[in-house]
Amino acid sequence: EADIEVNDVLLRFFEHCRRFVALVEENSTAMHQVDAFKEGPEMRRVLERVAGALCLPAGELNADLVQVAFLTCSYELAIKNVTSPWCSLFSEEDAKVLEYLNDLKQYWKRGYGYDINSRSSCSLFQDIFQQLDKAMEESKSSKPISSPVIVQIGHAETLQPLLALMGFFKDQEPLRANNYARQAQRQFRSGRIVPYAANLVFVLYHCDHAKAPREEYQVQLLLNEKLLPFHHSNQTIALYADLKDYYRDILQNCRFEEECELPKNNNTAADEL
């Protein structure tokens, strides 16, 4: 009996953004960093070790097959809490290499790799602040809050671009095929950012004893039920007015239709960097 609205344009923006679909999703060269890592020295060593464990010639395996085996191990451990026989094929170092392979894909397809990845989520970002604005205005006028809780349900593909748009988990150096060792302490780890049942919560507070009108409304952000420090202050609570000021450009100037228009010339995905 809940009032549920299906809004794929808002929550599956990645399917409705023509620029993203053409330049990233369907562009065979957009994942060149991922493809290069599959052929690189780290993955070759993994292939050799797995082939040895299976008593197979290394030439009969490729990165995609090994990744399927690793994901099978991961899924059974995460979902069933059992150690799959496939897990015995991999060392801890192998797991780190395969984790990086997946992070590379998420970085270039859903994260910071191309601007359109995150810019395509700006309509969702703006919608969140419109709902917070509405609650604040109702509170100021002493009206009951018409929507005290708003739940939007999407996918990791919804959340990862949104977090990138907000500037979270951005490393100084982009993730590339040739900097695996330097990225050992990277912030961008998709398995931690958007695990199973990932969630992002905005909490708006009305502070009765605020010293100034600007301090009356404050906000917290929780990612996967843990407080997330704001990018602009590194604090876990912020004045709502300050947060809107920090994201003013996105809130005022990011327009989905314009962001997602196909370029008139024959740009490649690399031009989006």
TrEMBL record:
SUPFAM superfamilies for this protein: Phosphoglycerate mutase-like (SSF53254)
Keywords carried by this UniProt record: Cell membrane, Glycoprotein, Hydrolase, Membrane, Signal
GO molecular function, one term: bisphosphoglycerate 3-phosphatase activity
Keyword flag Manganese: no
Family matches, as InterPro entries: His_Pase_clade-2, His_PPase_superfam
Predominant subcellular localization, coarse grouping: membrane
Keyword Transcription: no
Entry GO terms, CC: plasma membrane
Highest taxon of source: Eukaryota
Reactions catalysed, as given in the entry: 1D-myo-inositol 1,4,5,6-tetrakisphosphate + H2O = 1D-myo-inositol 1,4,5-trisphosphate + phosphate; 1D-myo-inositol 1,2,4,5,6-pentakisphosphate + H2O = 1D-myo-inositol 1,2,5,6-tetrakisphosphate + phosphate; 1D-myo-inositol 1,2,5,6-tetrakisphosphate + H2O = 1D-myo-inositol 1,2,6-trisphosphate + phosphate; 1D-myo-inositol hexakisphosphate + H2O = 1D-myo-inositol 1,2,3,5,6-pentakisphosphate + phosphate
Family according to the record: Belongs to the histidine acid phosphatase family. MINPP1 subfamily.
Name used for this protein in its record: Multiple inositol polyphosphate phosphatase 1
Species in which this protein is naturally found: Nothocercus nigrocapillus
GN (gene name): Minpp1
